[in-house]
């Protein structure tokens, strides 16, 4: 199993309950595919570096994960089809 960092940005118009449900959903996808979420960091609403789809802000969430690549691929696939996720980026943690 490998260590990953997964950062994703949620639309700022999503309410608090829907945001928590979305974070929980992605955490469950990872655990259902044999991975573990070591840490979930809710970084809050921040200004984007550049405008994306006429949005200037987004809600940032950072996950520290230990998983197989198939769990990461499934999570990324679900994030790409979700209308609430603006951007996502996964990096391998070499530490």
Automatic annotation (TrEMBL):
<dbReference type="InterPro" id="IPR014717">
    <property type="entry name" value="Transl_elong_EF1B/ribsomal_bS6"/>
</dbReference>
<dbReference type="GO" id="GO:0003735">
    <property type="term" value="F:structural constituent of ribosome"/>
</dbReference>
<keyword id="KW-0699">rRNA-binding</keyword>
<dbReference type="InterPro" id="IPR000529">
    <property type="entry name" value="Ribosomal_bS6"/>
</dbReference>
<keyword id="KW-0687">Ribonucleoprotein</keyword>
<comment type="function">
    <text>Binds together with bS18 to 16S ribosomal RNA.</text>
</comment>
<dbReference type="GO" id="GO:0005840">
    <property type="term" value="C:ribosome"/>
</dbReference>
<dbReference type="InterPro" id="IPR020814">
    <property type="entry name" value="Ribosomal_S6_plastid/chlpt"/>
</dbReference>
<dbReference type="GO" id="GO:0070181">
    <property type="term" value="F:small ribosomal subunit rRNA binding"/>
</dbReference>
<comment type="similarity">
    <text>Belongs to the bacterial ribosomal protein bS6 family.</text>
</comment>
<dbReference type="GO" id="GO:0005737">
    <property type="term" value="C:cytoplasm"/>
</dbReference>
<protein>
    <recommendedName>
        <fullName>Small ribosomal subunit protein bS6</fullName>
    </recommendedName>
</protein>
<dbReference type="Pfam" id="PF01250">
    <property type="entry name" value="Ribosomal_S6"/>
</dbReference>
<keyword id="KW-0689">Ribosomal protein</keyword>
<dbReference type="InterPro" id="IPR035980">
    <property type="entry name" value="Ribosomal_bS6_sf"/>
</dbReference>
<dbReference type="GO" id="GO:0006412">
    <property type="term" value="P:translation"/>
</dbReference>
<dbReference type="GO" id="GO:1990904">
    <property type="term" value="C:ribonucleoprotein complex"/>
</dbReference>
<dbReference type="InterPro" id="IPR020815">
    <property type="entry name" value="Ribosomal_bS6_CS"/>
</dbReference>
<keyword id="KW-0694">RNA-binding</keyword>
């Amino acid at each position: 199993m490998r260590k990953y960092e997964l950062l994703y940005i949620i639309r700022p118009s999503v309410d608090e309950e829907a945001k928590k449900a979305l974070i929980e959903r992605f955490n469950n996808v990872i655990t259902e595919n044999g991975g573990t979420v070591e840490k979930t960091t809710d970084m809050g609403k921040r200004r984007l570096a550049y405008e994306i789809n006429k949005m200037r802000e987004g809600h940032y969430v950072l996950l520290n994960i230990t998983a197989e690549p198939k769990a990461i691929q499934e999570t990324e696939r679900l994030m790409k089809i979700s209308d609430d996720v603006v951007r996502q980026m996964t990096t391998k943690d070499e530490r």
